[in-house]
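Backbones bend. Our protein:
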Amino acid sequence: MVAQKLQPRTPPSPPAGGETLLTGGRAARQNGAVIQRAAPVRLPCGLVLGAGAAYPEFLLPYDPSSPAADARCLEAARHLLESAAGRIDGIVLTLDLTAHPAPALRPGLLEGLLELRHRFSRHAGLPAAVSIALPASEMDLRAAARAGADILTLEAPAGLALFRRALPAADLRGILASLAMLAAPQAAALSAEAVRWLQPEPAALGGCCAAPFIREIAAARARRAAPEPLCAVALAVCAVPTLASFESGAAGPTPPAAWESLFVKAIRGCPVSLAATWPCQPGLFAAADLWRACGTPADAIADCLALRRGELPRAPAPPPSGPLSRILCADAILGIAEAIQTCLQPYQRAVAAAYAAATILAESGPDAGPGLAEADRELALHIAEDLISLPESGQELLEQAGSTYGSSILSGEIAQ
């Protein structure tokens, strides 16, 4: 058996009594390696995220290339606010500008959203947060904060070009170099700058998440362009740049596109947004502070009310299985979070996360949550063995990546 080829792991036992952050806001493992309490975030609109109440989050339709984009977006926001008024005590409206070239942040649109928010707060008693995801631009960030946005989330592009080449090539060293040596330093620097840019505005900084890398993982998995055990290991390593962002000033919430956010929640206690489309066991949805459902606004509100009662939302499909689903289980998340916290530097953290993930996969039999095929466990074992032979410094991995993919990739990303 694959598990017999690795030294047995004995994870610490959870404390007697109490619940974990990953199953409804309760205390996690208390051996000093995992956060023991939640870290709520108070938004300017009055909502408090991460204090035990789940709120629905809605993505607003927006295509700036369309002449009627602003009107459609505002009409959709009005409809969502009307649907929520009187049924729940708060919602989050999200405008995602990361896929659009500048200038995507139109002042009139943001002002219209905030005016709608104020109107429903005054007349319907409905606190509504406006969340904006945007590229890392000081001008846009400050403009959004000064206009009154509640949540601001950035995307850090450094390392993405290398990651796009390394993942389908099954190049573990290139994956580690992209996330630890390129993405993590930029995420830390951008979050630290963003905290300064936002002063004295009260907007919450969702941080620099690994959503662009997660999109590459999801696409590679869908196309079978990379082995799923490698995709799962890469997902665990994605927690390293996001954690660096939080250590540099971000507070959350993380967006639903950031599958790595639960690793960070286990460490920092930050609020997170989850979505019904995640490839995880439905039980993990209890960790949601924000919830993006499949279906109608009424479905999303009903799901959040169920979460508040300690019930799980309705799953859109049978529980998934496979390596990604195995990594997105509560015990795996806590184990990987513990491994990350044994190290201080991004490169060492990336190796620790990857090794913990590969070991978990290699040891996952039919009784360990989502069962894995023998081939998947064998590949995970090989990944774990390869990690043991890595150099002590990540700089060597960067140099190898430059030799493999061309120095122009690295020079362009380092300059970002």
Summary: The chain has one domain: 26-414.
